[in-house]
Amino acid sequence: MYHISFFLICCCLFFLVIPHSKFSTIAATSVDIIDQTCKKCTDEFDVISYKVCATSLQAVPVSHVTNLQGLALIAMELALQNATNTLSTIEKFSSNKSFDPFALVCLKDCLQLYLDAITTLRDAVGAFLREDYDTVNIWVSAVMEAPTTCEEGFKEKEGEVSPLKNENYNLFQLCDIALCISHMLKYLGSTFLTGCSAT
User: Fold this and answer.
1) CB–CB of 184/192 below 8 Å?
2) Domain containing 182: what range?
3) Among the residues of the chain, which ranges form H helices?
4) What is the CATH classification number for the domain harbouring 193?
5) How far is it, in rounded angstroms, from Cα 131 to Cα 183?
6) What per-residue confidence (pLDDT) applies to 188?
7) φ and ψ of 91, to 5 deg
8) What residue stretch is flagged as signal peptide (predicted)?
9) Is 24 a domain residue?
């Protein structure tokens, strides 16, 4: 299981890997950065919830001393934590005899989807640290298919309720947030960063 200290280590590593000059336009007012980022993501990505975005990012202590790049990394690490925890949940559900055969088949499918998602998210983090945003966008988008496909599997049987509804929703949201920030970094560059720091 991932802990908050893991995020701190990752972000510290991120600052060591990426040249310091990249961050010269960022002020350390991350509450404003989180607010501006989440508002922009909500405007540009209709499915993103501002509340989920702001609450998720602000819950990680290191987010209060980071910048836009750091927020993207935090979103991906939160998604990785969510996927890892959900994998454990699926394993527990799979041994629960209260689920009917159809639900157990769905859970088995979800298990494989989440296993693949975890691997892809780890690769996406590596690509992000190399500033390969095109690859990040492709892989994070691919991960978003996991919760969607998992959820749709349960809907194939009328009346079947997904026991992973919240987990699937949260992973989709976190990936979409990371994707949004990655798009900002690729297409908006210093203009958006300067705007955040001046707010």
Assistant:
1) yes
2) 4-18+29-198
3) 4-17, 30-44, 50-58, 68-94, 101-129, 133-155, 165-187, 189-198
4) 1.20.140.40
5) 12
6) 59
7) -60, -40
8) 1-28
9) no
Residues in the chain: 199
Whether 146 maps to a domain, the answer reads yes
Q: Are 166 and 81 in contact (CB under 8 A)?
A: no
If residue 149 lies in a helix (H) or strand (E), which one and from where to where? Answer: helix 133-155
Per residue of the chain (199 residues), what is the pLDDT tens digit? 334 344 444 544 444 344 433 433 343 445 688 999 999 999 988 899 999 999 999 988 777 667 889 999 999 999 999 999 999 999 999 999 899 999 999 999 999 999 999 999 999 999 999 989 999 999 999 999 999 999 999 999 999 999 999 999 999 999 999 999 998 887 755 344 444 444 4
Residue 2, classed as helix, strand or coil, is coil
Number of domains in the chain: 1
Q: Tell whether 183 is covered by a domain.
A: yes
